[in-house]
Recover the amino acids of this structure.
């Protein structure tokens, strides 16, 4: 391998709409993998269900396009079974905060050794335009004809409160900035959460892109690292447990195990 | 036509129960007695029952000790120790006393008047305070010839971390009880001391089976009555290089299992009905992505929260059909404690070889009862996953004759693939064409044919061509076996029992042969909705006029006399009709 971005690109063509922010996120991911010199056979990209969850198919690596909301537990299992693997979780805001919200909380709380990249478009795209937990109050969508009666939530604020040890916000319109943050996320030890504002031209309108850029310029949206601490990861703690377990009974043969029943 | 054979070997076995309030130590006494008998080489089966309280409240244990192998609890008790009649009242409906049974109770607590046909003896239990259970052990050991030295040793061992005064007080209580028991007129247990046996619960046997199979990853969420599997593997997996995680819910548990298995680990979760309901969607993923997974489901009373602490056989249909779409899966059923070990290893072997989800059905009545087992019986052949190493033109979901495709795991150079819950082509790429869907469905279902060929697991007991063939499954088999042994027909009618140990795919040929050779069939199950009967009918031609069904709600274990009674009724009915 020469570790060029192109080598991480699979021959599968994305199903995304022209202008979708997820193309830029995918490009940033190729670049990041190249910069970090990830081996394709030691890398696993895991997702749930949604437009953005199609992403693993577009990456030359091991991939798991799983079930709606369940990417994080599956990724946790993969990482615990083989800690040498680079495990990256990708998906949308509905997948991660609505149906998969409980796993988001607990995977962050455990400080599982994963990178979680959320492509946040404030809408359900694949099911054609219903309100998501991130859709702002009052917005009209396919499921909120008279305006959204619920306030949207900030995924980064959730991640910090859940105990994520690295949290940042990026904008897909800035590939260089996103790639820089993505690299930091992948290099972080423990649970890193990167929320990427990734406009949906089809269901949020052609102007969502411009609006996000304007809000960033006015300082209404902060881009960059929002939170960073270094605490022992889930694997660190599991190794601690293992050391205690081995010390408690240095010999652990089958006959040692059966002695508890004799 | 049939009569229940009189048990002529009464002095070769004994069934007793100890009932008390929380803190009386009824269950602890049962543990000590059972362990002492197991060490003496006797056969023991011990069950417990509790009130709904977390701590305190009434509790009881039921111990059957025998010189010969046993497969079920006895229907009636030979001896009963009651520390408090108020607590006994909670279990009254579930306790049957044998004729002339011996009942011991506290002298200051008057027995109920409806206790007929037994010999009642008042003793100073309360005066023994916290050692009343140890006093009871001494009493039982001399009254019935149970191993006194073994019990003394077990009592000493139980209190080994206490002060010498505490140990001394308990030994005194034991001796006082022993002196009382000498004056009791009862048949003594006759047995030849044998090699010590292990005393193990079904959940523990499942966990030991998982380790035997090479399980290196467990994820689970606590749920009664399966949590002991989680406890045991949480203690042992870290010791032997495995990894363990207690997840936030059952969705995450099976999710982590599928993930770990995708990465190459032999992985398992354990749950009960409500958890299995939550896992349904991910069972479909395991089947679709063809990632091996093992799910031990310990059945309890349902639906909904049901009766968490009591047994039922009502998750059968859910196990066999759970998850939307055409979802191939394997369902195995444990018939007893020792079998829980073997069935769990079988579960891993099938899952790993055929890249398929396997549900191992256990039941509360197996999972939480203790039985004696020979340590030497706990071995079982282990099959490992075939990992593809030749990655030349690698296609993860290549259509093969037996449906099993080459599988790489992350870390293998050139073996990269994307797996999917979406329908996919041979390379794992999403594909929604009808022809691809049909091809892949056929491929996935072909694995079941191969499994049916290789694993036609069942147990058959009794006469070769029977007049009455009893079809049952799971925990019922042990009870039915004992009933078959006890059914006595002066006209020479023969009875046989059959229990599939694999419920999906069913061992059809063996069942069909059993059905063809029996004159009349009796289906026995603990499901009010007759799930086993209805499931059998979808797969096997049962002769309508010759098939009888005994299906009732769980919450109370099947008894030998119920089975005998059902067989007798079949013939009464036949005679009336003739």
């Amino acid at each position: 391998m020469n570790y060029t971005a192109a080598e991480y690109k699979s021959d599968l063509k994305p199903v995304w709409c022209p202008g979708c922010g997820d193309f830029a996120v995918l490009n940033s991911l190729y670049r990041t993998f190249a910069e970090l010199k990830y081996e394709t056979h030691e890398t696993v990209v895991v997702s749930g269900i949604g437009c953005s969850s199609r992403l693993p198919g577009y990456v030359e690596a091991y991939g798991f396009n799983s079930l709606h909301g369940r990417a994080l537990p599956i990724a946790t299992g993969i990482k615990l079974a083989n800690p040498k693997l680079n495990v990256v979780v990708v998906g949308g805001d509905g997948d991660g905060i609505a149906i998969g919200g409980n796993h988001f909380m607990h995977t962050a709380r455990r400080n599982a050794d994963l990178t979680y990249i959320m492509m946040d478009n404030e809408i359900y795209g694949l099911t054609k335009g219903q309100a998501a937990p991130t859709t702002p109050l009052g917005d009209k969508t396919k499921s909120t004809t008279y305006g959204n009666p619920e306030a949207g939530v900030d995924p980064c604020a959730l991640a910090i409160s859940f105990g994520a040890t690295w949290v940042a916000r990026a904008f897909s319109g800035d590939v260089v900035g996103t790639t820089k943050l993505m690299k930091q996320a992948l290099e972080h030890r423990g649970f890193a959460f990167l929320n990427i504002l990734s406009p949906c031209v089809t269901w949020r309108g052609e102007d969502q892109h411009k609006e996000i850029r304007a809000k960033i310029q006015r300082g209404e949206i902060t881009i960059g690292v929002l939170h960073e601490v270094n605490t022992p990861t889930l694997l660190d703690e599991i190794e601690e447990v293992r050391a205690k377990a081995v010390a408690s009974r240095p010999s652990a043969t089958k006959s040692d195990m059966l002695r508890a029943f004799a | 036509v049939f009569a229940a054979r009189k048990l002529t070997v009464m002095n070769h076995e004994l069934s007793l129960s100890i009932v008390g309030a929380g803190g009386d130590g009824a269950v602890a006494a049962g543990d000590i007695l059972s362990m002492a008998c197991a060490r003496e080489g006797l056969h023991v089966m011990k069950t417990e029952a509790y009130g709904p309280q977390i701590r305190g409240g009434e509790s009881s244990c039921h111990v059957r000790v025998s010189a010969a192998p046993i497969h079920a609890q006895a229907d009636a008790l030979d001896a009963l120790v009651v520390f408090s009649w108020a607590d006994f009242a909670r279990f009254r409906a579930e306790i049957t006393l044998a004729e002339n049974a011996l009942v011991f109770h506290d002298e200051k607590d008057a027995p109920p008047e409806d206790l007929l046909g037994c010999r009642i003896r008042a003793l100073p239990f309360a005066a023994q305070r916290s050692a009343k259970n140890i006093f009871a052990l001494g009493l039982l050991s001399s009254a019935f010839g149970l191993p006194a030295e073994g019990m003394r040793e077990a009592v000493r061992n139980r209190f080994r971390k206490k002060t010498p005064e505490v140990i001394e007080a308990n030994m005194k209580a034991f001796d006082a009880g022993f002196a009382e028991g000498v004056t009791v007129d009862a048949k003594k247990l006759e047995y030849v001391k044998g090699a010590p046996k292990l005393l193990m619960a079904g959940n523990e046997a499942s966990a030991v089976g998982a380790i035997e199979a090479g399980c290196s990853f467990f994820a689970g969420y606590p749920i009664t009555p399966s949590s002991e599997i989680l406890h045991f593997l949480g203690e042992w997996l870290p010791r032997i290089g495995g990894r363990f995680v207690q997840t936030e819910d059952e969705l995450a548990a099976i999710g982590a299992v599928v993930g770990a298995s995708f990465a190459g680990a032999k992985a398992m979760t354990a749950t009960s009905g409500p958890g299995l309901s939550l896992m349904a969607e991910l069972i479909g993923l395991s089947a679709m992505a063809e990632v091996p997974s093992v799910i031990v489901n310990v059945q309890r009373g349902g639906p909904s929260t049901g009766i968490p602490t009591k047994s039922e056989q009502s998750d059968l249909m859910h196990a066999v059909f759970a998850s939307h779409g055409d979802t191939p899966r394997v369902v195995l059923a444990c018939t007893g404690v020792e079998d829980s070990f073997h069935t769990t290893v079988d579960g891993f072997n099938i899952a790993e070889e055929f890249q398929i989800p396997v549900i191992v059905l256990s039941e509360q009545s197996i999972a939480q009862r203790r039985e004696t087992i020979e340590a030497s019986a706990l071995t079982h052949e282990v099959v490992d996953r075939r990992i593809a190493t030749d990655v030349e033109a690698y296609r993860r979901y290549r259509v093969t004759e037996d449906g099993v495709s080459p599988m790489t795991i992350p870390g293998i150079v050139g073996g990269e693939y994307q797996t999917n819950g979406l329908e996919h082509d041979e390379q794992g790429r999403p594909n929604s064409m009808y022809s691809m869907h049909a091809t892949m469905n056929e491929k996935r279902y072909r694995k079941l044919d191969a499994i049916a060929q290789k694993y036609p697991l069942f147990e058959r007991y009794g006469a070769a061509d029977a007049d009455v063939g009893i079809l049952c499954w799971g925990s019922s088999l042990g009870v039915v076996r004992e009933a078959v042994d006890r059914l006595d027909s002066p006209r020479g009618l023969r009875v046989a029992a059959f229990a599939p140990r694999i419920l999906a795919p069913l061992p059809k040929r063996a069942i069909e042969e059993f059905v063809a050779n029996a004159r009349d069939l009796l289906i026995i199950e603990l499901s009010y909705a007759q799930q086993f009967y209805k499931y059998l009918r979808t797969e096997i031609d049962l002769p309508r006029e010759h098939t009888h069904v005994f299906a009732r709600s769980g919450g109370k274990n099947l008894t030998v006399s119920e089975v005998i009674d059902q067989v007798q009724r079949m013939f009464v009915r036949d005679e009336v009709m003739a």
Remarks:
- The two ends of chain A are 57 Å apart (CA to CA).
- The beta strands of chain A are 43-47, 62-65, 86-92, 115-120, 166-171, 192-197, 224-228.
- The longest strand of chain A covers residues 86-92.
